[in-house]
Amino acid sequence: MLMFLTVIATLSSFPAVAAFTHPNLNSKLQRFHDLLSSCNPYIVDSLVEEPPKSLLNDLLSGKWPQQESKDKNNDYIQFVSPLLEDGYPPAVFEYEAQHHRFKPLLLYIPGFDGTILAPFLQFPSLGEEFDVRAMRIDNADRSTFVELKERIVEYLLQECKKRNVENSVDKVYLMGESFGGILSTEVAMELKKTKYKEFIDLKGLVLVNPATSYLRSIVYELAPPIAAPKPSIPVLEGAEYAFRLLTEVVPLFLGEREHRFVQQLIRIILFKGLPPVVNNAEREAYMGRVAFAIPLRLKFMPKDTFQWRLKEWMEVGSSRFEDRLKTLRAAQHSDVRDVDVDTQTMLKVSEELRTTIVVGELDAMPSLEEAERLSSKLFQKAHVHVVKGSGHISTCGGSLHLIQVLRESFPEINLSGCSGDESCNISEELHGLEPRYDNSPIGMMPWQYWSTDNYRQVDKTDLQK
């Protein structure tokens, strides 16, 4: 994931090369420099007040967006609006007018790296139908699997009570990617309990390459020894860890499996095409801003963090999931009156929860096989979508138009084919991309990413209304 997104960041700045032929080069570059210097990609962070600490049954207040203070509480979990953070104009206008409260809430739960970068291309189109939120986890966090679940449930309760419109129950969708797929499944089991129905109506679950197959994957065989506390050469512990991580684990998610992604990057660089979801200037500028910020937002994962997350997140979460699946299978062959409340909830989720499972065709986890297992053994109302030519890290990338995929599972999203400015001109000649929306031979210049038409900072006064 780190290498993949760093490559995106580097190559996304390629249009700047064309600036050297511009007649007003100096003034343009100076303005671009000023914009970069003044732009705060984490504008939401500076606007947020610390919410009160409370139990699940006492969550009646708090400022939006929810975010904990690292300095005061040594807490490294944040819940943010990614579209507001990066100044996407339609989202900012919507929040200023408070119209977001009338949309269902979609919470993205991240993978092992804890960042919200993997699906960033999908956020603008998802924002047309959802109030998009995302969970971000710092490398310094040491929450257990259960604690992560509790934090998500607390956040959703708090937000749904604040967003409450005309005393109606708030509609919520969960989207979990990789490890987030394990965690979001656990959260779904919790939210379907009777005690939450007064506040939250969980309408659907979206799983992207769910890592519920971790204990059966090659990653489970290779990764834990790299995180072993005793290195073979103690004096070179850091270097050995980094070397083995990059040579043994990263190749599972890169290399030949990402051939389609490489071909897409080449065509984006040559201004031949763009991802299907990048179909107007505002979205192209948003893509460029996020790409420029990636080197600042990604941090190399320390060995102790890697070790903690493999054990406390991946192994514990996967084991818990397998135990639940065994319990569910046993309950399906017994009298429902003889099972406990948790098992009854699992039965309800299995029978009623609409689930979309999106997997990369070439994922090494292996997600394709896991999607078949989940749709046949757990989720009776599941829809599986396979992204052609994609591996684990690029499933939410250039070939996927997620909002259209979700329409098949969730008709209430109210999309019919290509609606509005959504397009359906995916070309195999462009390896899953579409022709540029503007047919421009040189594309958008980087300084345009922060122009008044394409970028809007969050107004603190409006957010605190």
What is the structure about, briefly put?
This protein is α/β, with parallel strands linked by helices and 465 residues long.
Structural features, described:
- This protein is of the alpha/beta class and 465 residues long.
- Helix content is 42%, strand content 11%.
- It has 17 helices and 9 strands.
- The strands form 2 sheets. Strands 1-3-2-4-5-7-8 form a 7-stranded mixed beta sheet, sandwiched between helices.
- The model is unreliable at 1-26, 36-74 and 415-423 (pLDDT under 50).
Question: What are its keywords?
Answer:
single chain, 465 residues, alpha/beta, 7-stranded mixed beta sheet, two-stranded antiparallel sheet, 9 strands, 42% helix
Q: Structural class from helices and strands?
A: alpha/beta
Helix content: 40-55%
**Order of the strands making up the biggest sheet:** 1-3-2-4-5-7-8
Unreliable stretches, pLDDT < 50, 5 or more residues? 1-26, 36-74, 415-423
The mean pLDDT is 79
Beta strands, count = 9
As a percent range, the share of strand residues is 5-15%
